[in-house]
Amino acid sequence: MQVSVLQVGYDDDEPVAARVDRVAQLVADQRGADLVVLPELWAPGGFAYREWERRAEPLDGPTVRALADAARAAGAVVHGGSLVERTEQPGPQGRHLWNTSVVLGPDGALLASYRKVHRFGFGAGEPLLMEAGEDVVVVDLPLGPEGEAVRTGLATCYDVRFPELFRRQVDLGAELVLLPAAWPAARLAHWRLLTRARAVEDQVVLIAVGTAGTHARTPMAGHSAVVSPWGEDLAEADADEQVLRVEVDLGEVARCREQFPVLADRRL
């Protein structure tokens, strides 16, 4: 499987519409990739809380439409990172906003969506403004040989601190996990530790995609990575905007689980 990891960098001076056009073209340029993965909230701004209400969109809004066109141009499955989704009906807490990831097929069709379960902000930011997702999402994506389905778990950023979510994904058959993020540079060490831990303990390929640059006065960590089920870095970015093109052998998941069958020894 050929994977393109798009570590998008941006700052507060770039208009959202211009960023959407720029990133959509970057996605379209990834011809030959089987999977393209973008970061969390790259269009509305990961820490741009004050702008989320104004920048929110439905899942058939301009950002997803642009990504769908780009997926068709690239002929790839595209994990569009996440956006601030606006729904007509409120959630359980009476809010209309969600941090929602989308996965699009090579034909531009919506294959899956995931609403972030664990909201970051300790009562402010996401918990104050957004609803929490409730569903653990594992979806079959046509990423194996000859388009065979690969069981793929979806998670977002702060979710990585909650291992029970990923263990539940394994119980649902996940062999690949896609983790877009907007992770701050101040906690880079946590990002590197936690992403490797989730890959090792669940024996999955984990693709973790962060943002670069500085926005809302927050320097971003970058350091997107593709991690094997053994915890080895198949590729890692630096702190700047970067595209990683990585060959991933998904068969390594089965080999790892056979050679080191730790999951079979679970008791709790």
Model description:
The structure is a single chain. This protein is an alpha/beta fold and 268 residues long. It has helices at residues 16-28, 52-55, 62-74, 126-129, 163-171, 188-202, 251-259, and strands at 2-7, 35-37, 77-86, 97-104, 110-115, 138-142, 149-154, 176-180, 205-209, 214-215, 218-219, 225-227, 233-236, 242-247. The protein has one domain: Nitrilase/N-carbamoyl-D-aminoacid amidohydrolase (4-Layer Sandwich), CATH 3.60.110.10. 25% of the residues lie in helices and 26% in strands. The chain has a six-stranded mixed beta sheet with strand order 5-4-3-2-1-14. Strands 6-7-8-9-12-13 form a six-stranded mixed beta sheet, with helices on one face. A two-stranded antiparallel sheet has the order 10-11. Strand 4 and strand 5 form a beta hairpin. The longest helix is centred in the last third of the chain and has 15 residues, at 188-202. The protein is globular.
Short account of what is shown:
The protein is of the alpha/beta class. The protein has helices at residues 16-28, 52-55, 62-74, 126-129, 163-171, 188-202, 251-259; strands spanning 2-7, 35-37, 77-86, 97-104, 110-115, 138-142, 149-154, 176-180, 205-209, 214-215, 218-219, 225-227, 233-236, 242-247.
Query: How many β-strand stretches?
Result: 14
Fill in the CATH topology: Nitrilase/N-carbamoyl-D-aminoacid amidohydrolase
Any idea what the radius of gyration is? 17 Å
Structural class: alpha/beta
Number of helices: 7
The CATH H-level superfamily is Carbon-nitrogen hydrolase
- Taken from the alpha-carbon principal axes, the silhouette is globular
Q: Please, what is the average pLDDT?
A: 97
Low-confidence stretches: none
